[in-house]
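Its record is set out here:
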Amino acid sequence: MGWNKVAMVGAGMIPFGELFDKGWEVMLEEAYLNCISSVDKGFDPQDIKAGWVGTARPELHGQGAQGGNSLMGQIGLAGVPCTRVENGCPTGADAIRNAAFGVASGVYDVVLAAGYEKMRDAPTTGLLGIAVQGHPLLTLGETAMTMFAPKAIRYMHEYGLTKEQMAMVAVKNRKNGVLDPYAQFRFEITVEDVLKSLPVCDPLNLLDCCPQTDGAACVLLCRADIADKYTDKPVYIAGLGCGTDYYYQHEVDSFTSYAATVRSAKEAYTMAGIGPRDIDLAEIHDCFTITEIIDYEDLGFCDRGEGKNLIEKGETERTGRIPCNASGGLICKGHPLGATGVSQCVELYWHLREEAGERQVEIKNGYGLQHNVGGRAIGNSVVIILSRNKN
C-alpha cells in the first residue's frame, strides 16, 4: 500500500531558537553532519548525487540571493547539482517533495533535502516588508496576523469557538515542547497565560502566535530498493500532496478552511492508499492557534466545526487518538520558514522508528503525516505521509 518508491534513511536537525552566534552556513552544516551521522550503517557523502534546499526569505534578512550552491558548496559537495526551493511556509516540505520526485524518476539513487532560515539577525520589519508588496490596495498593510485573525473571527461566528479553546492549542504544544531538546521554548504555560498575553491582532494574543526563529534540518532520501544498504529501519514516503488556492484573501471560498490543505491532503492520502484514521501522529502547521484547529478539519481528523472539540477533549494530546505536534509544533519549537517542513519530517522519522525518547507516541498503523500551509492568502500547502511499512 502506498507510493513507497523513496526511502528516508537519515535525518538530522539543530536546536531551533535565536541563534545569534551562528550564521546560516554553520546552522546548515551542523544539520547536515547530524543527518549523515544518523545513518545506521554509515554513510559516504560521495553517494549524494543531487540536492534540494529550501530557504524562503534570505534576501529579506541581509543574506543576499542564495541558490543551490548555498547547500552543496557549504557542505563540501561543490559540483553536485542542487536546486533552491521557495514556496512560502511549505518551503522545506516542498524541497523534500521535489527531492523525492528526483529519486522516483530514476535519475538519482541518493539525494539530500535540506531547509534553513536565519530570521533573527535582522529587524522584524525586514520580513514584514512583504506586506507592502503586491497590489497597492488589496494587500496594503497585510501581515501574517491580519491574514489569520479574520479566520479566527469567522470560525468563532460559525462554530462558537472560544479564545479559551484556541489557547488550549498553545498549552498543549508548549507541554509537548518541554520534552523536545530541539524546541525554542521549553516551559509550560496555562490558558490564563495565553489570555493575558499582549494582544497582537484581535482575537489573537502573543502566545497564540509562533515566534520568529533560526534553524536548519536535513534528510537523506534514496531508492526504496537500496535502503537496506544504509539501514534496517527505513521510513518510506507513502504519499505526497501539494495544493494551492487563490492569491488574494477576497477571492477564497471559505474563511473557516484552507482549500490548499484540503487539496494537498487528498492527493497525499490517495497516493498513500490510506485515510485520516490510519495516521498515528501528525506534525501540522500551527503558526497560530486557530490554524491548528482548522487543520484538524482540513486534514480529515474530524468533521467541520468539530476542531474545537478535538482540542478540548484532549484527542490531539500525545496520548490522544490523533497526537498532533508532539515536537511542540511551530508555536513552541519555532518556525524558521525553510527548515520547518524538513524538521517536521525529521520528527516523524524518529517517531516511526520509535526513537523519539520521552515524547514518543504509540505507533499502531505505521503512518505519520506532515503538513504546512501558508503563502499569500494562505494559498499553498504541502502534505507528506511517511510510513515504516514496506508495502
Notes: Residues 6-123+210-387 form a domain with the Peroxisomal Thiolase; Chain A, domain 1 fold (CATH 3.40.47.10). The mean pLDDT is 93. The chain is about 30% helix and 15% strand.
